[in-house]
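Office hours follow-up: a student asked to see two folded examples consecutively, so here they are.
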Amino acid sequence: MMRRRYLALILLWIILAIAVLLAPYSLHLSLIDSLRQPVILLGVIIAVLLLWRRHWRIGGGLVLGLVSLSLPWLASGSLPIPQDMRQIKLIILPSSSGKALRYAVEEKPDLIFIPDFSNKTDRALGSQKKIIHAAPAEEPQLMAALPELSDLYRPWLLKTNDGMGLFIRQGATDIDSIRVREAQVGSYALVVDANLSGTELTLAMVHLSRPFPLAGFGRQVAQAERLGGQLAEIPRPIILAGDFNALPWSKALQNLSSAMAADNAQWTGTFPAKSPVKLAIDQVRVNGGLQIVSLETGPYLGSVHLPLVATIALPPR
């Protein structure tokens, strides 16, 4: 009887492990990946029991399965950063609510990415034909929509048709150096060149479509392929960040990372904000000598996502 229970438990674990391993290959199964941590914990308990009872072969096989499940996290490491490298701070906000904006301003980042404006902000901004707003304080409509950012952040880069905005700390960039690369309606990406703290960079903010239902899956794949093709042709260092609605090891993210030859991938869970097990669908990717020094979540701000805070080291001049 006890042997049958062991076999049933092992069989259940194998089924769950296979489901978790296959989840990244289908964006529709991304929520299954949230079981990765419980499955690993269950596998550790079963492996210890098997090895304690000297079932070496089965226990050893289970350990190999545990290593396979842990590979995405083992691959997400950090590199030593020389202390003399210049650093910038980026915050990805989950919304444009007053609470979220006040939090960001208190943190004083060099870059604020908002890939998804709140409905109130969308209505207040309306449809802005212009993307680069060098002096937002002189535009009453902008001030009424986002008053918290008026004093410390300029320019504003707004793509209102896709409900997103990128804000650069005043003095961190030369406004004349900014050039918009991608602003096509429906691409859900805003890609701009800028000289930031003396370094020529490309800033790419995204908010890919959700992978469900089936129509959404097709849109997300098309968006990732289009953006990947564009990033592959950019010779300067790139910061790619935003809400990808995809897991770090999913095909969509792998394609984007490969296209830009991203270095030093790291991630941390941000969604759902109040869940004990969170999915890492808000992410940052860098290349061209840029390095992620730290990546952490901010406090709960009333959204279903947590803010993501990244410190990025710039390449030597």
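And the second, which I mentioned at the end of office hours:
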Amino acid sequence: MDRAGVVFRVWGCRGSASTSHADTHRYGGETTCFEIISGQGERLMVDCGSGLRQFGLSLEYSGTPQLKRPQINVLLTHHHLDHIMGLGLFAPLLNESAEVVFWSEDAEASRASIDRLFSPPIWPVKLTQNKLIAFRSLAAHDNAISGFMVRPFQLRHPGGAVGYEIRIDNRKIVIATDHETGDAVLDAGVHAASTEADLLVFDAPYSEEEYANRLGWGHSPRSAALAIATKAKARRLLLTHHDPGATDSALDHIASQLGAAPLETMLARDGLLIRL
């Protein structure tokens, strides 16, 4: 991969559940998983949805154990199933070819949530017993992780969630999935983090009409995402967390309406690469 600049890659952008149908193959059906690569080749992952499996298979060191294992750093936004479901088949852990460090607001809560899902009788092995896994808590302010500066901020979502302001190589990427606008204090925090972001990744699966029937679900209408991005003077907006029922043709129709947006706006799709 060209290391001339920062690269953002989408490995999964569906919300709630993965999907695999002929009418969703262009935008993809994997759940949330993002990768950020610095100009120096350092890597930072965000969330472990079903897209994590394909990411793991893409790594050149995923097939065999390493004498000196690389470290993969993963930011967790929250512990809902669609954001951690890819862990069980993550090749670097299965093949003991990398160390994986999970970063979150509360390391013990992350450990407990992953342990609850990935252990018998739900999963055949207890994933957290893998000696290559570590859990670390983030401070409320800036955290240095392999050259990335990471600051968490609170999101409005059932059970709680955090977004991330990530800075690397004079670029700023902001992850705001999953967030439902409408809380003035939390919206102000999202706005502050997103100010002049080179890329704002925002959870916005609904039209205004659809959102009216989904109040309290923890997700936003596209109009709210555009309003925050515009007010924050973000340079680019990537809409993610697509409804599992949204077909390629439905998403094409949404994408066709984004040309009138006041800033560059696009829909996420599995495999999308954005160079910053």
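Two things to take away from it. The longest strand covers residues 148-155. The radius of gyration is 18 Å.
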